[in-house]
What does this fold into?
Amino acid sequence: MTKILAIETSCDETAAAVIEDGVFIRSNVVASQIDIHRRYGGVFPEVASRQHILAIGTVIQDALIQARTGWNELEAVAVTYGPGLAGSLLVGVNAAKGIALALNLPLIGVNHLEGHLYSNWLDTEGKGNPPKIKFPVLSLIVSGGHTELVLMRGHGDYEILGRTIDDAAGEAFDKVARILGIGFPGGPAIQKTAEGGNPSAYKFPRARLKDSYDFSFSGLKTAVLREVQKFTKVDKMHKPEKSEQQQLRLNGMPTANIAASFQMAVVDVLVDKTKAAADKYEVKEILLAGGVSANSLLRNKMMSSAGRPVRVPPLYLCTDNAAMIGAAAYRHWQAGELVSQDLDVKANLRLA
Ligand code: KG4
Ligand code: ZN
It folds into this structure.
């Protein structure tokens, strides 16, 4: 029985978890800063670091209490060291180093994207029956900062088949929500607005980037902006003020149709490319991960068209959390891949 304390502070969630044998979630505590950042229309890095400093101690203590685990029962401490906001990462890495130093425990550094990947290995039903995933698998990581198509032939064996060449999928959702003036974070706001809209109302562009598994969403974002401009004088990307939003409605902008058509365009490209890569590499399963995998259209379309099992973490494991970091850390622990106290943060790190 190996209990790992995992810490995650790469963006705007302060999170800690106790994970047993890489799959059993003994606790999973997340303190979200979303309400604080909402007023800025996005994550404000300086504010994020300060909030992590305020929350980290309590979050870690809560994780141990909820797991009914004493400090002396921990086998290792794991922490996200990148990619993410440098100031945010520093808080988690320092906390993990302090604990490892004080308790003389091994330290495990985890790549945030690797964490998202491993969210699919967790025993989410709590029935002691973790998923048995068959390799090779293809994972689509879609978050606020990343869009990556990763082929995994075994644990820790990653081949990046494609990634975004401009905006990440979640970033596109966030920017388009801002253009439409419907709130932050953009993903859930667009999904909700799209419910009342017609996804075929607009033929927004789908960047296929021939013969490649890379993605591009900036053309789509510009196409939405052009459409919105027909109803308003807004000529740059900014969050419309309340009065402007009212004006847009008065001008009859079909916000729901635009949101639904945009969402469909993003999902079409994500599903088509994932399916093409899954066929080519003859993978046994497809795994979705990251904040955008919370999107119900993406989940449903992927499941109905992938032609093989599709796994999606429950919503609370799609967005940032420390349970997934503990799951990935366990594989490093098994492989003896520990890091020393000179672990640094890497804000722009990639998975492979
Ligand atoms: O994985 P995550 O919590 O943080 C990063 O590592 O970036 O992902 C956050 C992103 C945001 O861009 C948010 O708009 C998006 O996930 N998101 C969604 C949905 N829920 C969250 N995008 C589309 N549909 C959703 N339901
Ligand atoms: Zn993330």
